[in-house]
Amino acid sequence: MTHPPDLHQLRYFLAVADTLNFRAAAARLNIAQPAISRAVRTLEERLGHRLFDRTTRHVSLTAQGAALAEGARHAQKAISRALRHMDQIAAGDAGEITIGYSAQAAHGPMSRLLVRFEQRYPDIRIRLWLMSSEEQLSALQEAKIDLGFLLSDAITPELFHIPVARERFIALLPIGHRLAAAASVRLADLRDEPFVLGSSERWKTFRALIEGVCLREGFRPVVAQQADDVPLLLGMVAAGLGVTLYGQAISQALEPTVIGRPLAGKGLDFSISIAWHPDRMLPCSQRLIDFARQVAENGA
C-alpha cells in the first residue's frame, strides 16, 4: 500500500518537478542540494515509485512522477485557498451567517440591506429562516441563529440590538370596504370593525403593539379571526372577514383585493432591529452588524 507523502516532501518534490534541476530547486528553496536529493530519494522509497529519470546531464519526470506532480500542484493550490479562506474567516470577510427574520421585517429594508452586504462581501454566505420574533429570542439564546431581524419591542435585556427600520402602521381593508376609498383612516373609524390578527402564539409582540395603539384610541380590537402567517392573514382580509393593521412596507406586496390606507395620527409606528447575543459573535456577523449600523447612520 502506498503511503501518502507529507507536505514538506511534496514541496521539495514540486521544486524539482518545476525546474527539472536539483541545483535550481535547492536555490529556489534556499537549502543545500544534498538535502533536496535525500528528500526526493526518501519520497521515492516511501511511495515505491521512481519519480525522476536522472542522468549526469538531464532530469525528467517519469510517468508516475508526472501524475504526482499534477495532483500535488492541485493540492498545493487547494491548501493555499484553504489558508486564505481561513484568514478571511478570522477577519470576518468570509464565513456563513444564519439569520432569523420575522414576517414584519421581511417587507422592510432587510432585503435591500442583505443584498448590498452580499455585494460587498461575496465570500460571506447568508442563510435565512422565517421565525416569529419570539422564536428568534430562544434561537439566539441557543445559538441556532447568529442574528435576528425582529420587532424591537420583543428584544430581551441580555441581547444587543440596533434599530434598522421604523415602520408606520397602515390599515388593511377588503376592496369593497366603506373606507377603502378614503385618503386616510382614523383608528377610531375601526372601533366597531372585526379584526383579523396574527395568532397569539406566534405574533404575541405584534398583537400587543396593535392592541396598544387601539387602546390609546379608547377601544380594544374585537378579534374575529387569527392567522399564523401573512398570506393567510391577507386572504382573510380579502374575504371580508375583518380588517387589520400592518407595517406600511407591505403596501408594495398587496394583491388588488386588499387595500392599504394610511392612518391619521401620531405614535402609530413600530421599530425593527437586528439583534444578537454578545457571547456568540462570529467575525462575519460582526461585519454585518457594522454594515447595518453604517447604513442606519447614513440613512442610506
TrEMBL record:
Database matches in CDD domains: PBP2_LTTR_aromatics_like (cd08414)
Superkingdom classification of source: Bacteria
Domain HTH lysR-type: 5-62
Pfam families: HTH_1, LysR_substrate
Gene3D superfamilies reported for this sequence: Periplasmic binding protein-like II, Winged helix-like DNA-binding domain superfamily/Winged helix DNA-binding domain
Keyword Transcription regulation: yes
Gene Ontology CC terms, in alphabetical order: protein-DNA complex
UniProt GO MF annotations: DNA binding; DNA-binding transcription factor activity
InterPro entries: LysR_HTH_N, LysR_subst-bd, WH-like_DNA-bd_sf, WH_DNA-bd_sf
Alphabetically ordered keywords of this record: DNA-binding, Transcription, Transcription regulation
Entry's family note: Belongs to the LysR transcriptional regulatory family.
Stated name of the protein: LysR family transcriptional regulator
Species this chain originates from: Szabonella alba
